[in-house]
Records
---
Amino acid sequence: MNSLSTKHLLGIENITPEDIQMIFQVADNFKDVINRPIKKVPTLRDITIANLFFENSTRTKLSFELAEKRLSADVVNFSAASSSVKKGETLIDTVNNILAMKVDMVVIRHPSPGAALFLSKHIDSVIINAGDGTHEHPTQALLDAYSIREKLGDVKGKNVVIVGDILHSRVAISNIHCLKKLGANVKVCGPLTLMPKHIESLGVEVETNLKKALEWCDVANMLRIQHERQEVKYFPSLKEYTLQYGLTQDLLDELDKEIVIMHPGPINRGVEISSEIADSNNSIILSQVENGVAIRMAVIYLLAGKI
Amino acid sequence: MILKEREILNKTEINILISRLTRQLIENHNLFEESILIGVQPRGIFVANRLQQKLKELSGIDVTTGAIDTTFFRDDFRRKDMPLLPSVNNLDFSIENKRIILVDDVLFSGRTIRAAMDALMTFGRPTSIELLVLIDRRFTRNLPIEANYVGKYIDTLSSEKVEVMWKETDEIDKVILVKK
C-alpha cells in the first residue's frame, strides 16, 4: 500500500485508519523539512493550487498557503468577500472559471455543509475540504490527532474530551471520527443545548460536568463558542458559560494528574480557557499550529501523486 | 516473462571491494576530521555502514555517518503510478563546510544522485561532495554525473536490473544481475 484510498479529502468519515497513519508518516518527514535551514522542497513545482475561502480564516488559510509554498506549488488565493460571488455567481461557475485557468487542486472553505462533496461531484479536480459549515474540518482533526501522538506517543487508548460548542463545531465532528478511527476513547462535554441530537451514535459519551470530564481524560480539547453560527440563545450568558465550562488553573490544580490542553483557535481568552492555561506548559496550542503545516503538506503531497 | 539471475559478486568479493574503497577514502581524507559519509536512502545506507565499520577496523577512525532521503527532490513524482513514500533523513549534525562522501549501491541514470545533492544542499553548504558507488552501470547515464570511487564497473542492457542484497535485509551479501 503506497497511496491514499481516496482521491479527495472531503472528511475524516470516509477515509481509513491506514490513510491516517500514512498521512502521519509523511507528515513526520515534512516536519523535518520545515525545521531545516531551507524549508522548501521542489516536489510540486508543476502543480497549481487554488485556495477558495468563502468564509473567514486566519490560521487555516495561512497554514494551507505555507504548506503549498513549501512544496513549491503555485498558489492562487480567492476570498469571497472581494470576488464576483457578490455579483451573483454560483459556486460551480466560480470554480469552473478558476479551473479553466489550469488549476490542479482546490482547497475550499465554505459556510454550507457538503460544499466540498458537491464540488467533487461536479468539478474535475482534486478537492481538499478546509471546513464546510458545521460538517467537517478534516485537516484540523488530523493535526490534532498528530499533535496528541507527538505529545503522548500514541493516540490509541488515550482518553480525549472535547469541550464546548459541539453543536456548531466541524472540528468536533472531524475530531471524533479521527480519534475513534485511531482507537482513542472520546467524550464530549458542554451544556446539553449545545449537543447535537444522536451524537452518541458516533460512539462518544456525553458528560455535562466539566470537572468529571477532566478527571477522566488525558487530553482536553477546548472549543470556541461559535457566535456567528448561533441564531438563538443556547445559554443564559457568556459569564454563566465560563463559570460552568471555562477551563481555569483552579480546576486543573484540583486534578491529581497532568493533562494536555488543546485548542483549535481562535481562542477567546477568559471564556472557554483562561490566559494562564493557554500559555502554560500543558498547552500544546502552538505545536498544533506548527504541525498543521506538516500535516497539510502531507495531505497535498499524497493527493497530488494521484493527479 | 522469464527471469534469469546471474551472480556478479559474492560475499567475499564485496568485502574485498569495500576494503579497497575504504583505503581509497583514507588516501584522500586522511583522518576524516572534516569528512562525513552519507548513504542515499533506502539502499545506500548499507554500503555507508560497511565503509564505516571497515574504516574503524583498518584505522580506528569513527567517521560520522548519516542518511539522506531523496523522495521530495526526485524528478519522477507523478510520472509513476503511486506517490513515493519517503524514508527518514538521518542528519543530526551540521554539514556546513564539511567534505561529504555520498554513498549509494548502484549508479544507473544519475537522477537519484542529482536529487540527493539537491536534498543535501537544503541542510547547508558543504565544502565538497564526492560520490562513491559499489556498482557503476556504465553507458546508462541520463545526466552528466560520474562517481569518484567505484567498486566495480559492469556493462548491462537497460532491460536488465542490478540487485544488491545485504545480510541485514536479504540474509546474504551478494550482487545479482536479473534479466527479464
---
Amino acid sequence: MWTLFQIELFKIFRRPRTYIAFAAITALIGMVQLGLKVDGQEYASFVMADFNSSFALEGNLLNGYFVCFIVLQLLLVHVPLLIALIAADMISGEANTGTLRLLMSKPVSRVEFILAKYLASVVYTIMLLVWVALQALFLSMLIFGTDDMFIMKSSYAVLIKSGDVFWRYAGAFCFAALAMTTVAALGFLLSLFAENSIGPIVATMSVIIVSTLLSTMNIPLFNLVKPYLFTTHMITWKEFFDLRVNELNEAIPGSLAYPEKIKTSALILLIHIVVFVGAAAVIFKRKDIVS
Amino acid sequence: MRSFMTFFLLVIAATLQAQDVTVLVAKVKAKLDQVNDYIAEGKMKTDVAFIKAPVGKVKVYFRKPDRFKLQKDGGISILPKGGISINMRSLLTTERFLALDAGTQLLDGQTLRIVKLLPVEENSDVVLTTLYIDEPGLLIKKAISTTKENGTYEMEMQYGNFRQYALPDKVVISFQTKDYKLPKGVTLEFSDGDKPKTEAEKLRNKKGRIEITYASYTINKGIAESVFKQ
C-alpha cells in the first residue's frame, strides 16, 4: 500500500498538469494582492460604506489577516475546480492510457489500489492548500503587515484581536482541507465511470457548480436539500472568524460563536468522503476492467 | 402699567438667570482649563448590536485647545462618527454660545443644574447641547449633544480620583446607529437562519454605547504634536 501510494504521488507530481493549479493560484492571489495594495482603501470604503456612515475605524484595516480572508473567500469557491483536474483523472486517466488493466494484473488488492490513489489525491489537495496558505496568509502578512482583523458579515461585523487570529487560520485551513478532500473524493468517484479524463472533470465541476447554486439560492424548496449538500458546508471555515459574546455584548477572545456548526459541517463532509470513497472502492472492486 | 412692570421684572429675572448659568458654564470651563494636556489609559467597551468587539485597552491623548486622539493599544478602534471626541472640552470648545437655564433635575440622588447651550455660530455642527452640571463640584455629569450631521449623542460621566481636574473615571457615550446590512452574495453566507427582527429588537439595534473606563491620567506633562499626526 505504501509503495503504491508513493508511486501514485510520483505520477501526480510528474505531470505538468499538476502545476497548472499551483501557477493559477499564484497568479490569482498575486492579482488580488496587487489590486488591494494599489487600490485597497477604495475597495475597503466601498464594502464598508454602510458601516462608515455611522462609525470611524482607525488602524491598519487592510492588513495581512484581512487580505487573506478576502483571498480565501474568493478562492475557496474556485479551488475545487483545480482539485477536480487531478482527482477526477486518477482512474479515468489510467483507463485512457490503457495502464489500468496492466496495473490490475499485479498482485495488489483493488481496495488498496483505490485507497492509495485517493490518498495521493488528498496529499495533492493538502499541498495545494499549503501553497494557498503560504501565498494568501504569510505573503500577505509580509506585504500588508498585521493588526486586528475586522470582518463584515451580512448582519454584523466582527473585530478580532491580532493575537487571536492565527489559530483561527490554522483551524480554517484544516477545515478547508477537509472540504477540499470531499471534492477530491467526488472527483475520484466520478473518475471510475469514464475512460477519458474530460468527462469526470467536467462532471465534478458541474456537480460543484449546481450544488453551489442550490446552496446560494434562498428558495424554500432548495432550503430543504441545502443541509445535505456538501457545498453548503464547505464555507463553514468562516465560522472560525466569529466570536461568541457574553450577556453584556462583549466579544470573548479565543471563543467561537457556533462551534457546533463547525462540528456538524465537519461531520457531514466526513460522511460525504466516506460515502464517496467507499462507493468508489465497492464499484471498483466489482468493475470489469476492459481498458 | 402694573402688567408692564410685571413683564419687565420677569425679563430682568430671566436675563439674570441666564447670566447666572453663563457664569456657571464659565466656571466649569475654567476648571477644565487647568488641564493643558493629558494622556489617559483605560479600557474601551463597544456595545453596538451589530458589532462583536472585545474590550480593548485604549490610550487617549488630549492637548488644548482641541487636539484629541484615541488610540487602541496596537489595534483597530471603532468610534461613533462625528464631532464628539469623547472629552469634556469638545462640549465647550465653542467660545460663543448662548446659555439658557432649564431648571434642575435629580440624577442618581444628586440635584443637577440643566443648562442648554446654543452656539451662536451659524456653521457649527452642534445644534444644541444640554449639560447637567453638578454646581458645587463644577462637574458636567451628563451631556446631550444634537449635531447636524451625526444625530444625537449622550455622554454620562462618573468622577473619582481626578475630579479636581474635572476628568472622569468613566465615560459612557450613547448614540443612534443606522441599520446595517450587507447582501449575502457579497459575504458568501448561504444560511437562511436569520429570523425577522421584532420591533423592540429593531429599536434596540439603533442604540449604540461606547464605554471608556480610565485607569490613569498623566496631566500637564506635555505632548508632542507628532502624536496627533500619526
